[in-house]
Amino acid sequence: MPSEQPQKPAAIEFRHVSLWFDEKQVLDDISFELAQGEMIFLTGASGSGKSVLTHLAMGLMKPDKGQILIQGESIEALDEPELVELRGRWMGIVFQEDSLFTGLTAFDNAAYRLDEKGVAEEETEREVLEVLQFVGLEQDAEKLPEELSGGMRRRLEIARALIGWPSIMLFDEPTSSLDPISAEKVLDLIIRARDIQHISSIYVTKQLNEIPYLASHRAVARPDGTVVIESVSSGTEAAPRTRVVVLDAGRIVFTGSVTEFAASTLPVVTRLTQADNGTIFSDFYTPDPWDKERRPKETILGR
Fold first, then answer.
1. Domains of the chain
2. Model pLDDT for residues 38-95, shown as the tens digit of each residue
3. Three-state SS at 75
């Protein structure tokens, strides 16, 4: 009999993680796994611990209790140089706040991580131009952040995080403060990165209408080099592998599919999904900003 292939470790695993800020407990016994190729939607009210969780996953903070593993490697005992090497090898993050270097061009912002690693100039130029083309900013490489729109700056943040094509991405409310058209550009880029580059990701959001959009669209590469964003039925084999995790007061109170989340009657979930908090969980659609003909259901993107 052929020998079984060893099972790959989870991309990210939290084992009974707790964290305090002084006397206040901000995360309480958090355990979950992000499987290879999976996208987890992490949501909850403001102050529930979502951003803290992403900072822990990057090793930017350390837990008071529990264990965090990245690709099967425990990180809480690593020193800063070891964490920097691990992040550079596996991970990228798009923060909620603008973190671009204002005095650097778009090219140099995207190249920053490669420069820090001492990558050769020729290879750096190739990788930066590739990722700028991926996010549609190849014509803006010499512009400073102040010369870019809010949506373009957010795409540049994504380009910098994607440099080197990490296998794990963390998105902390990446469409925050963007208009609907710019937001959908960002969502389509995230879908492309997830499906074409096979990236595992945690997507933090309070914009619940983004969840069904990301869960019901996939990117497909065509032989001519274009990439198609197409809608798929949730729960089918073609649908992306997704899951919703809800935090409340530092604890995981719900884990399930997008469909189960939408149908849940748990009070902590209905407070998020119903209109009484100003957010309605519904299908997300705005006219496709990448297609001049504004065709629904399908977006054709050049690579």
1. 12-101+165-301 (3.40.50.300)
2. 999 999 988 899 999 999 999 989 999 999 999 999 998 899 889 988 888 899 998 8
3. coil
Phi-psi map region of 173: left, alpha, beta (phi>0 left; psi -120 to 50 alpha)? left
CB 213 within 8 A of CB 187: yes
Q: Tell me how far apart the alpha carbons of residues 158 and 134 are, in angstroms, rounded to a whole number.
A: 10
38 and 200 Cβ atoms separated by less than 8 Å: yes
Q: Tell me how far apart the alpha carbons of residues 68 and 23 are, in angstroms, rounded to a whole number.
A: 22
Name the token pair of 145.
């952040």
Query: Measured between alpha carbons, how far is 100 from 171 in angstroms, rounded to an integer?
Result: 15
82: tokens are: 């070891």
Residues in the chain: 303
SS3 content of the chain, % helix, strand, coil (to 5): 35, 25, 40
Give burial (CB, 10 Å; 0-12/13-18/19+) of 20: middle
Residue in 234, 237, 230, 159 with CA at minimum distance from that of residue 191: 230
Strand partners for 248: 251
Whether 250 contacts 20, CB under 8 Å: no
Confidence (pTM): 0.84
Helix ranges restricted to H, the chain = 50-57, 80-90, 106-117, 121-134, 150-162, 180-196, 210-215, 258-263, 267-273
Give me the pLDDT at residue 5, please. 59
Helices 150-162 and 180-196 cross at an angle (nearest 10°) of 10
Please, which residues have CB within 8 angstroms of residue 41's CB and are 6 or more apart in sequence? 203, 205, 211, 214, 215, 242, 243, 244, 245, 258
Q: What are phi and psi of 28, to 5 degrees?
A: -130, 105
